[in-house]
Amino acid sequence: MDWRVESYDTLTKDELFEILKLRVDVFVVEQACPYPEIDDVDRAPETQHLFLQSDTKILAYARCYRQSDSVASIGRVIVSAEMRGKGVAHTLMEKAIASCEQSIPHQRLVISAQCYLDKFYSGIGFVKQGSEYLEDGIPHQDMVYTQGKHS
C-alpha cells in the first residue's frame, strides 16, 4: 500500500477512474444520494488528490483545495468499505492536513462534515462553526481546524 498526493494533471487515467469510482460507489450509491459528485474543484490547479493505493485499487481518498484567498479545505474524505475501522481515516486526515499546510497557503482550514462524523473530526482538532444544514439531503456541519496556527 502506498500513500500518494497528485494534482489533476499528474493523475493517470486509471487513478482518476478508480478515485471517481470509489467516490460514486460510496457518496452516491451507498449513501443513496444522487448529486453531481464530480465538479470543477477536482481539476483546479491547486487541488491536491491524496489517496491510499494498493496495486490499482484506491482504498482511501481526500482532496485538499483552495476555498478562497485565505481558506483551504479538505473534502470528499472517503475510506473504502474493506478499510473502515482500521485507523486509515485518521491517517488520511493527518496527511490531508499536512498536504494543505504544505501546498495551499491559508489562514483557516475548514471542512463540511457529515454530522454523524462530528466526534471523529472533533477528535482530530476540528471545531463546529455555525448551524447544521442539509447538503444533498444529508445533515452537514461546517468545522474549522483549531490545531497549530488555524484558529
TrEMBL record:
The gene is elaA. It comes from Pseudoalteromonas peptidolytica F12-50-A1. Gene3D superfamilies: 3.40.630.30. Pfam families: Acetyltransf_10. GO terms for molecular function: acyltransferase activity, transferring groups other than amino-acyl groups. It comes from the Bacteria. This is ElaA protein. Residues 6-148 form the N-acetyltransferase domain.
